Amino acid sequence: MVKDNDSPALLVIDDDTDILRVLKANLELHHFSVVTADSWMEGQKAIASRKPDLIILDLMLPDGDGIEICRTVKGKNPALPIIMLTAKDKISDKVIGLESGADDYMVKPFETLELIARIKACLRRLKASERQEILNIGNMSIDFRRRLVRIKGREIILTPKEYDLLCFLVENRGSVISREDIKRHLWKESKIYSWSRVIDVHIQHLRQKIEENPSEPEYITTISGIGYRFRE
């Protein structure tokens, strides 16, 4: 957990020692505390001992697959932000990375300043969720720290993307959110998700899980021709 007066602690896991060296130097210049690991084995030790506020994770490690590592970390600590790094530039790889629970995704080579901007954005979202750890809306309870959603006390199992979609709607509750806003927030610039029907399908799946009667939704209402609005 980041305290206001502390330097955020970052863990960078990458088997490229040159990248580790350059990132550590540049991130420390911007007042981050940085620990590096060149394998998943070393990364696990650092997570346990250093309790990082954010992880920068390479997709391809010699002793582990970044997608599975991301799922493992998120399963134990859902609120811990993870930014994926990869040399792969295919849209499908980006989508898989984000669907695994990664908070953001960057393709090598990248500009350090852009990475820093994304780190700060992830940490801002983390601090916002820590300020109000549990939010109650109607019969729904959202535990932001543990990434748990309950309806009438019963835990609702959401995919990482469904949870992120719910949080985005909740953060903007009372306001009309366009499909383009949802796409831009959840899928960045992934063109594969430019089709608005995909957004509608995700909304439909979310309604089926949180609404008592999905055909007459209490929480997520459709604003015809524009997008959606979450109840206040």
Features:
single chain, 232 residues, alpha/beta, Rossmann fold, Arc Repressor Mutant, subunit A, 2 domains, 5-stranded parallel sheet, 4-stranded antiparallel sheet, 8 helices, 14 strands, 43% helix, 23% strand, elongated, disordered N terminus
Description:
The chain is built from 8 helices and 14 strands. With 232 residues, it is an alpha/beta fold. The two termini are 28 Å apart. It folds into 2 domains: 9-130, Rossmann fold (3-Layer(aba) Sandwich), CATH 3.40.50.2300; 132-230, Arc Repressor Mutant, subunit A (Orthogonal Bundle). Residues 1-5 have low confidence and may be disordered. A 5-stranded parallel beta sheet has the order 2-1-3-6-7, sandwiched between helices. Strands 8-9-10-11 form a 4-stranded antiparallel beta sheet, with no helix packed on it. It has a 3-stranded antiparallel beta sheet with strand order 12-14-13. A hairpin with a 2-residue loop joins β8 and β9 (140-143).
